# Entry
Amino acid sequence: MRSTPNLLLIVLDALREDAVPASLGADRRRSIRARTCLASAPWTLPSCSSLLTGNAATRHGHYWITNPLPTNALLGALPERYRRVGIVNNPVLSARSGLGEGFHQWKFHADHLAPFERALELIPTATSRKPLFVVLHSNIPHDYYLDVAAPYYEEAYPEDPGPPFVLGERVITWRDTDTAEREAVTRTYRACVQKTFALLDAVLGAVRERDDFVTAVTADHGEGFEPEIGRVHHAGRVHQDLIRVPLFFDLPSAVARRRHAELADTLDTHPVSSTDILPTMLMLAGQTSLPETDGVPVTAAPSGRVLVSEDRRYLYLKDRFRFNFHGRFKNMTDDEIARNQAMQADLGAPPVLRSFVADGHKLIVTSLALAANGHAPGRPALDSYAARLLGGPSVAYHGDRLYACEYYDLARDPGEHENLLSSTTTWPDVLRAAWPSAPPTVPATDGTETDLYTILAESELVAVS
Ligand SMILES: [Zn+2]
# Structure
């Protein structure tokens, strides 16, 4: 591009990839849709930290606000003359999160309309001498379980298909919900998505009219709507409904046709990570020298990459109890808080859930370590946790740590229902032979990162019923 474009990164909280309306990518001359983009983490704080730093959650480890986020070198690659403004709509992203570091303004708005209004005020102020980099975050899709969603439902369904169903604090467990209520929950979510895109249209219209903004639209994670198999809400799991996120680029006409075509081709043929989004935007803005991060401009990504996503704070169990290590117990009952505290006393370290995606296959490893001086006697406690894990994993014990593995063929089984390791007692061999890439690394008993095959070779394999 000849001139310096403005940059607009739009993050729609908890927006599933399959919920995006077709209208978003309709203008093929401007819009490019990624076939597969994977978020670095399945919930807001670590995932947004990855979006803004270009580093994987495994590296930055920003799962608690009290863990400081390392200095954002990627933001440092943006020329000084850019005015950097963050407009966020989820309290976990407020200035206390550290995400606003390096921005001239970083403001949390509790109101749903305010971020869009603020963006519409800002966009006309961009000049070629003082270009803008704006992060616009909306929590509307995320908030489908709150009372604030009811008016969006009335707007979306004037013909009245039945009342909305607001889950409230039951969002984590969906406890005591019947079939009709569950269907209404999904409709309520869709109404929130519709509202989001109605508001977003005005913002996209404003940047398209100026034709000097490089815009990306994405989400920090998805949302689960399958209570029957324990996949609800977000965090504590790394299934595709949570880590597969939408990614659209909207480009000004000054981007060279060749570059546009190259980007479109890459995004159509290669899965990308959410850590790649900001490096790609910077590349489109003409920045050729970027700091080393896990994410890269997508057209410069090496082939055969393994895309890693991680949670290191939450863990969903079969009965839809979501454990929260060192959490604040939002949306939990007194009983659930007591259960959480007992489990935290059992475990010596936060759970580690990691997914590895390569060549259309996905490996999920869940690792739990018992506390050295915990109340739980080792073996029965490991057995009890192994039996309560989601997804019918194949389990190995290594000292006081368990490793639960699931392996899926995403092309044949996009819903991740059939663990390809579960039918055999020699599953580590099956995995080693099938996994197309270098051995994945996982935390070992002493806390260091070790290759999974070495750990499995030293482990006791157990059958979980
Ligand atoms: Zn979120």
The two ends are 59 Å apart (CA to CA). The chain has a mean pLDDT of 94.
